[in-house]
């Protein structure tokens, strides 16, 4: 081997070793630097396309955190992405690829809606009724989301059906069936849009910090609490150990007494329950009624990217969800205020995601190849 | 031009470091042309690392490699193969569903005008087989999966020769063979050296090294302790060099009085994933304080039998009982909780989670043990202490509970698993190849622990392909062949040769057995 080639290899080794050993704090710093760098390059592209780059970048940032109402919107998107992201992460950690979070989210939200619409007339028309209604809606969402997740789980465990395919198909079925039921039975007389009637005024989460009609700090609280619970279960309980071990190495999990079939079903059920909870939050906090699921934001799909960026670590889902929520809010703001093509906005956002994800990608690649020294 | 008097391979001052760990510390090795050079040493002594350096898998930090007197450096196995070096891995690198011919020519297909010239390939393979007395050419169109391990190994050797290997590295080639197949391998090795080829023979087994090799180099802790003439050394000298102290070869402590029957297997038949009957109507029992050995060539149903006992697999027929209670329907987890410990044969896939630290691995199969949780949450502090205890007691290296399982050498992984399973205070221990890949010093210790546990009244079922191990530890030995127990013998009453014949499906005196099922094996 020539000296030059050896030099390159050893340099690559040193860089890779450094990256593999990066601490959590260093990773956060890397992510921030990567975002800044991507914004810089994005600005150059925007300028080269003949638009005002400074205005573009400042609008992106302003749209996310520029004022209280923008911040509320970002946190609202982030809350949804964190919840759905954790739903994806739970399944991925167990080695089950739940691509059906969107469908479980739709079904969960629909179940919550049914609960509220049918139980509300039975209760006195007073704010106190909100508590039993919210509790009922939450339970129904958990049950429906969980059942809709368990279904592909059962099909995978006992019939060998690939969960990637079944969950994708179940997404379409969820949207289609919910739309049909909404349109046929829940649309008020004479209404043009396929929407249910509004929930009673008192059903909703109080804004508390933010005076936004569609965001409550309690919603973010629900998302963060879910993250903490999932983290504790995965890291500190025997069940969590079973679940994570199944994802790492199924034969070892089986050896240690895990029933792989039941584990698949349980994992999908839990993942679906969290997705269902996200659906309830969406119906109650954001909409206040229920609508055609085909028009909903695709939180359940964006959640896959959130979870992957977080390396499927539940705690990592928080910063990843905040980043995606911020980019979503900033991007939408640019769409409203600037005359920049939406393709360019999406391109720059994609660039940022790529830059933030790249170090993790290299880290994964470095562990596969022996760059960074043979790790014996 | 090649210098015919120069050594085939000369390794000088080879040093290979992984981080702070020195795997090879200025090792010298000289392989004379036309000779067999055995490399022996404990696990983690650096044998595999040294061979991987020679085979181009690792770049040495220091030192030089000379082939036929010419200094060389290899960036990849491709370079090493081009320089005439072939490696026969312990786990064969063959494609199961391809034929022998396809496997041999894979990647080196002779071609005329872009098409594979199969006839030319056949001719060359037949030539090679004729020269060295292989029968591989009779099976050229048979898929690998239909052949026995002995033949598969020959295919590997022919494959290397086909690629023009002058020097062959054999990595523990006898591990999967019956005694008769081992003899066959030694004949092949002799034929190869008679033709001027040179062999490096890696092994754990001192008697094989002395029997087959011309020179023996002993590695210990990454350094070459010395090279001795195989004809002029003794097992005791080699063992002392390897371990650095005297080793007791015979720890005979048979003759306790077994107690009640702890484990009963009655008429068990097991099918594998493909629906093939791997275990056929097997009945046996193990008493408290007794070791029942199961001898047999790997793949004769031992694995499926112990999986049925430990709850990894559901038998098609028959019952498994623990202390008289039928446990055939109990889950694997319930059986662990009821006191069945299991050292699995597959330590890479089953026994350890490779990406977990040793602390996390200490919990594997202990998840539901009260000692490791306080109600709802796991007690990682206590689990960590338990990992430390296993590491100390079983001399697991490196002594770092945070090290990932995959960073350990095979022998150290094995020691950790054995430690974890033995320290649970089981009432029944099922162990598959508990000392496979483990160094002599640790084998001694593990055997001692088995004997201690027998004295404490544990019922032990020991599956091993090492006859000396079965012979040494068992109170009774059952021999399995093609899914059935063909005979149960008293180890004091049978020689290793007789066991070898039973394992090969023959009667003890070497005559062909009657067809299966027509005689009353009990």
From TrEMBL, chain A:
UniProt keyword annotations, A-Z: Cell membrane, Membrane, Transmembrane, Transmembrane helix
Species lineage: Archaea, Methanobacteriati, Methanobacteriota, Stenosarchaea group, Halobacteria
Localization per Swiss-Prot or TrEMBL: Cell membrane
Annotated transmembrane regions: 28-51, 71-92, 104-123, 129-151, 163-182, 215-234, 270-290, 344-362
Protein's UniProt name: ABC transporter permease
Gene Ontology cellular-component annotations: plasma membrane
Membrane topology: Multi-pass membrane protein
GO terms assigned for molecular function: transmembrane transporter activity
InterPro entries found in the cross-reference section: ABC_transp_permease
Organism: Haloferax volcanii (Halobacterium volcanii)
């Amino acid at each position: 081997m020539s000296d030059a080639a050896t030099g390159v290899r050893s340099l690559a080794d040193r860089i890779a070793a450094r990256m593999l050993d990066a601490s959590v704090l260093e990773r956060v710093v890397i992510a921030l630097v990567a975002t800044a760098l991507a914004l810089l390059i994005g600005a150059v592209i925007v300028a080269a396309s003949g638009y005002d780059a400074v205005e573009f970048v400042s609008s992106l940032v302003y749209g996310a955190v520029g004022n209280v109402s923008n911040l509320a919107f970002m946190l609202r998107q982030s809350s949804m992405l964190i919840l759905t992201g954790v739903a994806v992460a739970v399944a991925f950690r167990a080695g089950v690829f739940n691509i059906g979070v969107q469908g479980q989210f739709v079904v969960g939200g629909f179940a919550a809606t049914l609960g509220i619409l049918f139980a509300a007339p039975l209760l006195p028309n007073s704010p106190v009724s909100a508590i039993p209604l919210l509790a009922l809606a939450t339970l129904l969402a958990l049950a429906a989301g969980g059942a809709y997740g368990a279904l592909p789980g059962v099909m995978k465990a006992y019939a060998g059906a690939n969960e990637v395919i079944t969950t994708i198909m179940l997404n379409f079925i969820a949207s289609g069936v919910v739309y049909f039921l909404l349109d046929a039975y829940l649309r008020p007389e004479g209404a043009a849009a396929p929407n249910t009637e509004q929930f009673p005024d008192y059903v909703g989460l109080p804004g508390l910090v933010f005076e936004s009609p569609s965001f409550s700090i309690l919603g973010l609280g629900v998302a963060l609490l879910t993250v903490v619970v999932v983290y504790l279960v995965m890291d500190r309980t025997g069940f969590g150990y079973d679940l994570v071990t199944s994802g790492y190495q199924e034969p070892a999990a089986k050896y240690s007494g895990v029933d792989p079939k039941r584990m698949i079903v349980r994992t999908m059920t839990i993942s679906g329950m969290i997705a269902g909870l996200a659906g309830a939050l969406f119906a109650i906090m954001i909409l206040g009624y229920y609508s055609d699921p085909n028009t909903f934001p695709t939180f359940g799909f964006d959640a896959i990217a959130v979870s992957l960026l977080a390396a499927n670590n539940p705690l990592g889902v928080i910063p990843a969800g905040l980043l995606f929520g911020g980019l979503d809010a900033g991007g939408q703001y640019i769409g409203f205020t600037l005359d920049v093509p939406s393709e360019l906005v999406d391109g720059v956002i994609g660039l940022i995601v790529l830059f933030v994800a790249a170090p993790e990608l290299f880290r994964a690649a470095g562990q596969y190849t022996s760059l960074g020294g043979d790790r014996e | 031009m090649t210098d015919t008097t120069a050594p085939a391979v000369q390794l000088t001052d080879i040093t290979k470091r992984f981080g702070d760990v020195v795997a090879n510390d200025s090792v010298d090795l000289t392989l004379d042309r036309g000779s067999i050079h055995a490399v022996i040493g404990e696990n983690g002594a650096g044998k595999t690392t040294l061979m991987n350096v020679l085979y181009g898998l690792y770049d040495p930090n220091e030192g030089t490699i000379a082939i036929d007197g010419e200094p060389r450096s290899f960036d990849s196995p491709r370079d090493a193969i081009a320089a005439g070096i072939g490696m026969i891995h312990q786990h064969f690198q063959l494609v199961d569903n391809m034929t022998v011919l396809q496997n041999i020519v894979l990647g080196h297909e002779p071609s005329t005008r872009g098409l594979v010239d199969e006839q030319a390939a056949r001719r060359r393979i037949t030539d090679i087989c004729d020269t060295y007395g292989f029968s591989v050419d009779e099976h050229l169109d048979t898929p690998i999966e239909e052949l026995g391990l002995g033949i598969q190994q020959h295919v590997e050797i022919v494959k290397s020769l086909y690629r023009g290997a002058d020097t062959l590295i054999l990595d523990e080639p006898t591990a999967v063979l019956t005694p008769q197949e081992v003899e066959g391998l030694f004949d092949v090795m002799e034929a190869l050296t008679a033709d001027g080829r040179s062999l490096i023979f890696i092994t754990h087994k001192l008697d094989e090294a002395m029997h087959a090799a011309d020179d023996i180099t002993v590695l210990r802790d990454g350094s070459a302790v010395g090279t001795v003439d195989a004809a002029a050394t003794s097992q005791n000298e080699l063992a002392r060099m390897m371990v650095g102290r005297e080793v007791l070869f015979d720890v005979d402590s048979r003759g306790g009085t077994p107690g009640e029957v702890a484990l009963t297997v009655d008429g068990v038949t097991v099918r594998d994933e493909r629906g093939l009957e791997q275990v056929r109507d097997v009945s046996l029992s193990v008493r408290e304080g007794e070791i029942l050995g199961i001898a047999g060539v790997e793949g004769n149903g031992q694995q499926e039998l112990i999986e049925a006992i430990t709850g990894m697999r559901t038998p098609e027929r028959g019952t498994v009982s623990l202390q008289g209670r039928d446990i055939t329907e109990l889950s694997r987890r319930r059986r662990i909780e009821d006191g069945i410990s299991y050292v699995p044969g597959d330590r890479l896939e089953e026994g350890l989670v490779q990406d977990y630290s040793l602390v996390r691995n200490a919990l594997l199969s202990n998840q539901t043990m009260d000692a490791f949780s306080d109600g709802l949450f796991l007690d990682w502090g206590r689990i960590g202490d338990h990992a430390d205890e296993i590491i100390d007691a079983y001399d697991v290296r490196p002594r770092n509970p945070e090290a990932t399982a995959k960073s350990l050498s095979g022998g150290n992984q094995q020691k950790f698993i054995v430690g974890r399973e033995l320290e649970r205070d089981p009432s029944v221990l099922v162990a598959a190849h508990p000392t496979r890949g483990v160094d002599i010093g640790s084998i001694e210790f593990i055997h001692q622990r088995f004997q201690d546990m027998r004295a404490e009244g544990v019922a032990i079922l020991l599956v091993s392909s090492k006859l000396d191990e079965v012979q040494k530890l068992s109170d009774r030995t059952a021999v399995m062949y093609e899914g059935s127990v063909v005979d149960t013998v008293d180890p004091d009453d049978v020689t290793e040769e007789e066991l070898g014949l039973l394992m090969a499906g023959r009667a003890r005196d070497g005559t062909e057995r009657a067809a299966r099922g027509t005689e009353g094996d009990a």
